[in-house]
Write a structure and sequence with these properties.
The chain is mainly beta. It has four helices and 21 strands. It is globular.
Length: about 325
């Protein structure tokens, strides 16, 4: 069965004339201690800003915890739930010039469990995070961002109340098609974004207010994560001409030997969603084992679920079941 999928891939290993990859992206594995712990990953979050995404790999009861500098330390939102902004006094307690500091809470730093953190620093042509207040208009007023190119993916979450995670991706075919990051649903016309220059540019974007959608309620507060898509215009690498982040799509072939997706670099982080069926989202990274063509060579986490890390043998079985 052929299925359409979207993929976002980030962070090759290039650097030089522009920013080095270790300056803007990190996958960091650590063990929880249930006491204050500083994670040093070399990324300047206090000066430049960005996103820290944490998941307990061993626990199926701990949610994905997302902290960003636009909302500030202590405030988490969970990609697998509709929950509003949550104050966690002993969650992520500080953004530092070379990483971040954790308190004692279990999801972020519980003793005896292995954790993973993915850090995206704000940088032109890579990543941005912005907050905005809904105006109730159709479409909204323009919301500014600093990517300097048209985004490849935008994820929006309402922070003052419950809501789904509205996700637009350049690989979606319909003008108004979107996905929910917190659900397994296939893509549908949610009318969240207008997938044209009428709604998304290299400096601004608009969201809609209509039907059952709640992405632009007047007075409501929102956070948006914007991921770039480099297309021979990344500006990274020794000569300032290499790409480091891609957002695209492909069609599955229903075989354990799947299609080859040529990104032009070796990725460190990949997020995939089947857009035609109700299958879960998948995140893999180089530290936990990105698929390399060898059976049982991958472990994954689901941003739409609190599940513990899916082991390689279980993942291969599920791929055989669902193909």
């Amino acid at each position: 069965m052929s299925v359409s999928k979207i993929v976002a891939a980030a962070a090759s290993s290039v650097g030089g004339a522009g920013l080095d990859i270790p300056e803007v992206f990190s996958t960091h594995l650590y063990e929880g201690t249930s006491s204050t712990q500083t994670i040093t990953n070399g990324i300047d979050l206090s000066g430049e800003g960005g996103l820290v995404w944490i998941k307990d790999r061993d626990s199926g009861s701990n949610s994905h915890m997302l902290y960003d500098t636009a909302r500030g330390a202590y405030y988490a939102i969970k990609s697998n739930t509709t929950s509003a902004n949550q104050f966690r006094s002993t969650g992520l307690t500080a953004f530092n010039s070379n990483g971040f500091t954790l308190g004692s809470l279990g999801a972020e730093n519980g003793s005896g469990n292995s954790k993973v953190s993915w850090t995206f620093r704000k940088a032109p042509k890579f990543f941005d995070v912005v907050t905005f207040t809904g105006d109730g208009n159709e479409p909204s007023a323009w919301i500014s961002h600093s990517l300097g190119q048209i985004p490849g993916m935008i994820i929006i979450k309402r922070t003052d109340s419950t809501s789904n995670w509205f996700t637009w991706h350049k690989g979606l075919s319909g003008r108004y098609d979107s996905l929910y990051l917190n659900l397994t649903n296939s893509s549908t016309s949610l009318f969240t974004f207008d997938n044209t220059t009428n709604g998304i540019t290299d400096t601004q974007f608009r969201v809609n207010f209509g039907g059952s959608n709640i992405e632009n309620i007047s007075g409501a507060t929102y956070v948006a994560y914007l991921f770039a898509h480099n297309n021979n215009d990344g500006g990274f690498g020794p000569d300032g001409d290499q790409d480091i982040i891609k957002c695209g799509s492909y069609s599955g072939n229903g075989s354990i030997t799947g299609p080859v997706i040529d990104l032009g670099f070796e990725p460190q982080w990949i997020m995939i969603k089947d857009t035609t069926s109700a299958h879960y989202w998948m995140i893999t990274d180089v530290m936990r084992g990105i698929p390399n063509g060898v059976a049982n060579s991958v472990a994954t986490l689901k941003p739409n679920g609190s599940d513990a890390e899916l082991t390689p043998s279980k993942l291969i079985l599920m791929l055989q079941v669902f193909k």
